[in-house]
């Protein structure tokens, strides 16, 4: 029977932390493929600059400064935690083998947790507002005819919907820039911590030592111009339609944005279809084989949490 001492508890914490770090290394998160990571130092961040797409104009007279107050898109940080309780009796009885894989899994889950927040945001984009007050995927995003935003607004769409389509949505994204379509806001990085003091309530009342992770973060929408949501069949024609439309996106004043969609994001239900569209050399039109002009054109991402 093991005697529970501070030295033993310290040794256990070191071992569990090693298991946690091993679990972190087992994971392959994908959130940073579609989300810009923004460091936060307060309870929330306000992204007024989302209304200003970076670009240049000829400098004649005073600089043109757009009003940032019109776009007060705010992301509030949230706190998250994951905890494992280790029973004192298990330590006394040397029955600790069950906990090492649990700590590894906690590490793996911590690494992919941003994926669990970021990728569902795409699905939510059909009914959640972004910085301009419209849904992220919407048919009526306002783009002004004048660079200073003082002219008439025209409506621009970044959504394709076929009313007869009953399948899952898919998404085409431009992820080639420093600013990506979504935002992962990080206030506090994950920390592996313990509660193992004898005076801790859980130890005193229930004979449990607690090990866990806490972090603070949240997610939100970036530039809608860099994403297109589609509720229509995943076909070559629809891919070309969406790609061509995104290539024509313009900033206020009519300046081309140079959007270059690079990534196709699909749920697991569409993985086979998407893989065939992007990797097959030939397709059959009528009775004749034709080259697949989209082969290798987009990176395919099939996230676990979409």
Automatic annotation (TrEMBL):
Protein's recorded name: Head protein
Source species, domain of life: Bacteria
């Amino acid at each position: 029977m093991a005697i529970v001492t501070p030295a033993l508890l310290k040794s256990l914490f070191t071992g569990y932390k090693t298991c946690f770090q091993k679990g972190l290394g087992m994971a392959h998160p994908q959130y940073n493929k579609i989300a810009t990571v923004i460091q936060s130092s307060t309870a929330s961040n306000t992204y007024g600059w989302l209304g200003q797409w970076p670009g240049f104009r000829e400098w004649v007279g005073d600089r043109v400064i757009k009003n940032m107050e019109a776009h007060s898109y705010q992301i509030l940080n949230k706190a998250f935690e994951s905890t494992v309780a280790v029973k004192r009796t298990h330590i006394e009885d040397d029955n600790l083998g069950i906990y090492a894989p649990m700590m590894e899994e906690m590490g793996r889950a911590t690494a992919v947790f941003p994926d669990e927040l970021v990728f569902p945001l795409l699905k939510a984009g059909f009914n959640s507002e972004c910085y301009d007050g419209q849904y992220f995927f919407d048919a009526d995003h306002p783009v002004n005819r004048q660079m200073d935003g003082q002219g008439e607004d025209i409506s621009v769409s970044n959504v394709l919907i076929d009313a007869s389509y009953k399948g899952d949505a898919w998404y085409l994204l431009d992820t080639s820039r420093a600013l990506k379509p979504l935002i992962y806001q990080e206030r506090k990085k994950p920390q592996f911590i313990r509660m193992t003091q004898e005076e801790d309530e859980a130890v005193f009342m229930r004979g449990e030592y607690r090990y866990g992770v806490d972090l603070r973060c949240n997610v939100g929408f970036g530039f809608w111009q860099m994403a297109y949501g589609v509720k229509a069949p995943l076909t070559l024609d629809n891919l070309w339609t969406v790609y061509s439309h995104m290539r024509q996106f313009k900033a206020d004043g009519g300046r081309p944005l140079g959007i270059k969609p690079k990534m196709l994001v699909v749920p697991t239900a569409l993985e086979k279809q998407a893989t065939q569209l992007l990797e097959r050399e030939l397709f059959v039109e009528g009775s004749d084989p034709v080259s697949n002009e989209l082969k290798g054109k987009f990176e395919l991402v099939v996230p676990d949490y979409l």
